[in-house]
TrEMBL record, chain A:
One of its GO terms (molecular function) is ABC-type transporter activity. It comes from Sphingomonas baiyangensis. This is Transport permease protein. The chain crosses the membrane at residues 21-43, 55-82, 140-161, 167-186, 221-245. Keywords: Cell membrane, Membrane, Transmembrane, Transmembrane helix, Transport. It is a multi-pass membrane protein.
From TrEMBL, chain B:
It comes from Sphingomonas baiyangensis. Residues 5-234 form the ABC transporter domain. It comes from the Bacteria. Pfam families: ABC_tran. InterPro entries: AAA+_ATPase (IPR003593), ABC_transporter-like_ATP-bd (IPR003439), ABC_transporter-like_CS (IPR017871), ABC_transporter_ATP-binding (IPR050763), P-loop_NTPase (IPR027417). This is ABC transporter ATP-binding protein. The keyword Cell division does not apply. The keyword ATP-binding applies. Keywords: ATP-binding, Nucleotide-binding, Transport. One of its GO terms (molecular function) is ATP hydrolysis activity.
Length: 253, 312
């Protein structure tokens, strides 16, 4: 195992984030603040508390999840796609590193950045709403698992993408709809059938539900199912990545 | 002595069906400079990419310093430095950061003194804090070399090192190659500039259409295939070569103004003094003599033409 190699990639990626720190932190913070003002303040004041939780507080876990997903996807997919695009991937492919070091470096760095931003948003939210975290350890576990799982997913997209268009296609066409329909702003109980049942096929529902459970002690589905679904998605992504590297898919002719 | 690189029966057929390599065998001795010569599309880069791990071979085995390049890829790749043909560099990193990154990526602990030496050798030290995208093409090429040397490779690949490089950098690079060799580094370079192979290499391999046509000591190759010729510019033009001169097999050129004599540069007797005496005896005046030796280029063109002729 070449830990120095993994560390070199990790530092390279973190330095890349560091160069764009301003925009990568300020943008999500402003976006989230806007959500709080509109949904929490303006509209939320006219919405009844959901299961005893004020609407402003209710949307916090969903908003953090929304940021984690989009940040993880874009960071990780860009991180591996750009060397492919610029040609510098030659060095990575000729280096004494295997898929394990690459994942530690690229996915580790992308997940780290997402978690940092997720944390910042959580802190931002305390300026708008009164927040209690019922299960901090579980909250942290969901934060880490989601960041890692979606960074892996982003890594897969980055390897798959043949152009910048494809790179933004999956996040725009698949992930954004899934996130908005994933119960970030409502409980799926509020949906009429058949949408309620359809929602159960949306993996994001389980992430948001589990994350919300760690805050308020209640979610749309049981915490065990949430955790299982998250771990299942993680395992699926690991499987796809391993297959890609065994076959050299779009990396090695 | 164990070869530092041993290639056995390596072939590569791409998914498109294009066969880029046809069962290549090659052994490289430690410390030598080997030039892989061939026209564009001959398979030079595919062969290098296969050895370095960028391309998966369809068949065959590759051993680097005794390590199997697939099964024991970590040990094998730590030994290898690769300078690619394309100027593929990061844009926003500094020179120093990108070279340090390369060292770490290959699993070597940070060594600022060594990196400084590499950068100074390549005249990059003054530019160490510059962003790579601000550098000229020639400087970027130096950065790629510095990155490849960052992990002290024992086997260095230079893929078309003088593509798009000015004369001064090319001279610098040749000097660097000779310096590296003195330090014990084995160097394999690909080129289609014969001059480069002639200048640098100990041995030359000629590759065309995925086949390694020959591998030979450069001097032996020159000796074996090297011909010299002399062109004699006549004072008075001739209609035909006089029968008295038939033993030299002369060719008449330029409307009878020039005689061309081809001879073997390595032969005991070149036949030149006797030819000149004979011309004087016959009263044939000449105003100029010009001799030249055939370069690797001529040899190479002959060889590739022969093979394609034989195959047809």
């Amino acid at each position: 195992m070449n830990l120095l190699g993994a560390w070199a990639i990790y530092r390279f990626e973190m330095a890349r984030f560091g160069r764009t720190l301003g925009q990568s932190v300020i943008t999500p913070v402003i976006t989230t603040a806007l959500y709080f003002i509109v949904f929490g303040g303006a509209i939320g004041s006219r919405i009844d508390a959901i299961d005893g939780v004020s609407y402003g507080a209710f949307i916090v876990p969903g908003l953090v999840m929304l940021t984690l997903l989009t940040q993880s996807l874009s960071n990780a997919s860009f991180g591996i796609y750009f060397p492919k695009f610029s040609g510098t991937i030659y060095e990575i492919l000729s280096a004494p590193v295997s898929v394990i070091e690459l994942l530690l470096g690229y996915v580790g760095a992308a997940a780290t950045k997402s978690m940092l931003i997720g944390g910042i948003i959580l802190v931002t939210s305390t300026f708008f709403v009164d927040l209690q975290i019922a299960h901090p350890a579980m909250m942290l576990a969901f934060l880490v698992l989601t960041s890692v799982a979606f960074s892996l997913f982003g890594f897969i997209i980055g390897i798959w993408a043949k152009g910048f268009e494809q790179l933004s296609l999956v996040p725009a066409l698949v992930v954004t709809p899934l996130t908005f329909l994933g119960g970030a702003f409502y409980t799926i109980d509020m949906l009429p059938e058949p949408w309620r049942t359809v929602s159960l096929f949306n993996p994001v529902v389980y992430l948001v539900s589990g994350f919300r459970w760690s805050f308020f002690g209640q979610g749309d589905v049981a915490i065990g199912i949430s955790l299982g679904a998250t771990l299942g998605f993680l395992a699926l992504c690991v499987g796809v990545v391993l297959w890609m590297f065994r076959t050299g898919y779009r990396l090695k002719p | 002595m164990q070869p530092i690189l041993s290639v056995r029966g390596v072939s590569k057929t791409y998914a498109s069906g294009h066969q880029a390599l046809k069962s290549v065998d090659l052994d490289i001795a430690p410390g030598e400079i080997f030039a892989l010569l061939g026209p564009n599309g001959a398979g030079k880069t595919t062969l290098i990419s296969t050895i370095c791990g960028l391309v998966t071979p369809s068949t065959g085995t590759i051993r680097v310093a005794g390590h199997d390049a697939l099964r024991d890829f970590r040990a094998a790749r730590r030994t290898i430095g690769l300078v690619p043909q394309e100027l593929s560099t990061d844009a926003f990193e500094t020179v120093l950061a990108t070279v340090r990154f390369s060292r770490g990526l290959f699993g070597y602990a940070r060594d600022d003194a060594y990196i400084e030496r590499v950068l100074r050798d390549l005249s990059l030290w003054e530019k160490r804090d510059a962003n790579i995208m601000e550098l000229s093409g020639g400087m970027k090429r130096r950065v790629l070399i510095a990155k490849a040397l960052a992990h002290e490779p024992r086997l260095l690949f230079l893929d078309e090192p003088s593509a798009g490089v000015d004369v001064s950098l090319r001279r610098d690079m040749w000097k660097l190659v000779h310096r590296l060799r003195e330090g014990g580094t084995t160097i394999i370079l690909t080129t289609h500039y014969i001059e480069e192979a002639e200048e640098m290499a100990d041995r030359v391999g000629v590759i065309n259409k995925g086949e390694l046509l020959l591998v030979e000591e450069k001097t032996a190759l020159m000796r074996k295939l090297g011909k010299r010729e002399m062109v004699i510019a006549l004072v008075e033009p001739m209609h035909s070569v006089p029968p008295d001169l038939s033993e030299w097999h002369l060719a008449l050129e330029d409307d009878g103004h020039k005689l061309r004599y081809v001879f073997d540069a390595q032969a005991e007797r070149t036949g030149i003094p006797s030819l000149l005496r004979k011309l004087a005896d016959m009263g044939i005046g000449f105003k100029d003599l010009d001799t030249s030796k055939s370069s690797l280029e001529d040899i190479f063109v002959d060889l590739v033409a022969d093979r394609s002729g034989a195959a047809a």
